[in-house]
Each structure stands twice: as C-alpha cells, then as structure tokens.
Amino acid sequence: MSSRTPRRRFLPSWLPIDPYILALLGTVGLAALLPASGAAATVASGASTGAVALLFLLYGARLSTREAVDGLRHWRLHGTVLACTFLVFPLLGLAARGLVPTLLTPDLYGGLLFLCLVPSTIQSSIAFTSIARGNVPAAICAGSFSSLAGIVITPLLAALLLGSGAGGFSADSVVKIVLQLLVPFLAGQLLRPWVGGFLVRHKKVLGYVDRGSILLVVYTAFSEGMNRGVWHLVTPGRLGLLLAVEAVLLAAMLALTWYGAKRLGFGRGDRIAIQFAGSKKSLAAGLPMASVLFGAHASLAVLPLMLFHQMQLMVCAVIARRRAGDPEEPKPEGEAAGRPPGPGSASGGVSGDDPGSGRGSGQGSDQGTDAEPVGGITSPVAPR
C-alpha cells in the first residue's frame, strides 16, 4: 500500500453498528408506529417511485463508460466475480428452498432468494480490498461491472426464479423496471458529459440524496406491509433462524471465493478483490429494485437483504484486518487482474499515479454508484 494512504487510519478500533443501518432500522420503526395510509400512502408511493427514478438517473450519470470499457481487459477476474454474484449465489439460494417451512417461511425465503440475485457492492468492496492490501483497481472495476450488469440480470433472474410467487411479479413489472430503472440510468449516461463534473464536485451532498431516497423506499414498503398485516407472519424465533441461515450463506461464499480463486490460479491481491467483491450484496441497489419487483410485498422481501448487509460489513471488516497482516506472497507474472506486469500493476499497488489504479480508476466507479457506508471505513481511492 502506498505511503500516502497509511493503513492505520482505515482500521476501526471496534465494530460499531453502521449508522446508516440504524437509520434504516429507525425508518422501519417509524413505519411500524406511524405507517402511511390513505392519501398519505398515495403521496408516499408516488414520492418513492420518483426517488427510485432519481437514484438510477444519478447512478447512470456517475458511472464512467470509458472506465467500464477499459476494464474489459480484466475479463477473467471480472468473469469470476460475476459468476459468484449471479450464478453461485442464486444456486445456493435455490438450495435453501429445502429449509421451507421448517426454518424459513415462504415469504422470508422469497426475500432470501432475492438477496442472492442482487449485484455486488462497490464502495465497501474497494475499502476492504484496500485495507487487506489487495488489488484495488480490480475491485473498483469488478464492483462497477456487477452493479451495471445487475440492472438487467437481477430483474431477469427474479422473473425466472421467483416468477408470479414474488408478491405479484408479472410481465407488468418488466415495464416498470424499464421505466423506473433502465430509462433513468440510460438518461444519466447521456447526461454525464454535462453533469458528471457537477456530481463529482458535490458527491458528499448527493450521497445524502441517495440515502434519503432509499430511506423513503423503505418507509413506503414497510408502511404497506403494516397496512396489510404481514408482520404477524414473522416471529423473533423466525428472525433468529433467518440470521443463522444468512450466516451460513455468507461463510460459504467467503470460503468459495477465497479458495476457489486460489484453485483458479489467481494471486493474493486478485483473490482478495474476488473475495470481497464476490461475496457481498448491495443494499443501495437491492432496495429500489425490490420496491419495483415486489410492490406491496416489498417489506418482507427486503428484510433478509438488510440483515445480510450489516452482517457482511462486520465480518468483512474483521477479515480485511487479518488479511492486512498476512505475509506478502511472491507476485506471479501477470498477476494484476490478467494484465502484463508493469509499473503500477502489482496487486494492491495503489500508487495514485498509474491511470489503471487507485485514483485513476476511482473517478468513475466510486462516484456514489453504491451509496453504502462502510462502518466508518473510508476508501482511500475515492475521488477527492
């Protein structure tokens, strides 16, 4: 790791609950005590729809198309992350069907399966990869590709695997997805030459817009759940069992991404990037998608994702700190994400001067595309 980004200031002395998770839980509590109903529910639903469209408009405007194209040369590493995110995860989710109804209710299982279809994170994957002294440029590109692909792949997988049982998911939902997610995203890409610089300069302020939009989506979804009386289906015992199932799922993916990448011949730096990008799920991308896919049934559908998100942050923070203390392995030739060895291409080398690493790669991918806090951990490669 570069001397300009000392590792100590990115290591939390303890693992607090993510403040944003507290905000989410507070929003759920508000919806339980004061759910929107009647005319207020109509207004909240319309505002939520507009917020989702705005969210994906900003996603499109922030994501650098040039960086995505340049990153195609790392196809082997990115293909591995995409396979973990959209193939291995869904297969494990389908295998969990055998836990119904002994451990999971059908509604909670639907949420767990949806969790397995959501794209990977960007910001937290980058931060943890940097802490562990992994291949940061690869983590940036892998997270960006996963987020971009998820806009199309996640709804398609939901239609295939969840079908009409996903709380009313039907062909009409495809139209909603196109209008609320894909069209705003493409509009953001078209507007990027004019608004991209403004978004970069005001990234911190727009981050609050991202988080506020997601909180509105959560409030609307849980209000509808309260009005429909769905919460009598969930007991504390069921929640405990859900947490246990998700802990097993996370442990399985962490092991598969680490040892599987080793079997595929990746070096240490690339294995770190694959583990953190391939084992995590994006709350920022998943919540808006759930509101479109599940409609009135979104409250239970997003609960497994919210729990898994906090769990993955806490567990990956511990793993990243342990990886940071690992002895360096000899760097095999061409290790850095499938590129020929050269200046700045070594795994985990964040020089800040190489256009393919650190600061250069961060200019498109980490501009709020995955607006998730990382438990106080800040990515050293985020744009300044």
User: Sheet bearing the most strands, described?
Assistant: none
N-to-C SSE string, H for helix and E for strand: HHHHHHHHHHHHHH
Let me know the number of strands: 0
How confident is the prediction overall: mean pLDDT? 75
Report the end-to-end length measured between terminal Cα atoms.
18 Å
| Low-confidence segments | 1-15, 165-169, 334-384
Quaternary structure classification: single chain
In what range is the share of β-strand residues?
under 5%
Total number of helices: 14
**Rounded to an integer, what's the Rg over CA atoms?**
20 Å
Percent helix? 55-70%
Give the overall shape, derived from the CA principal axes.
globular
Class inferred from helices and paired strands:
mainly alpha
Secondary structure elements and pairings:
Blueprint: H1 19-33, H2 39-62, H3 65-70, H4 75-95, H5 106-117, H6 123-131, H7 136-161, H8 171-201, H9 203-227, H10 236-263, H11 268-278, H12 283-294, H13 298-324, H14 359-365
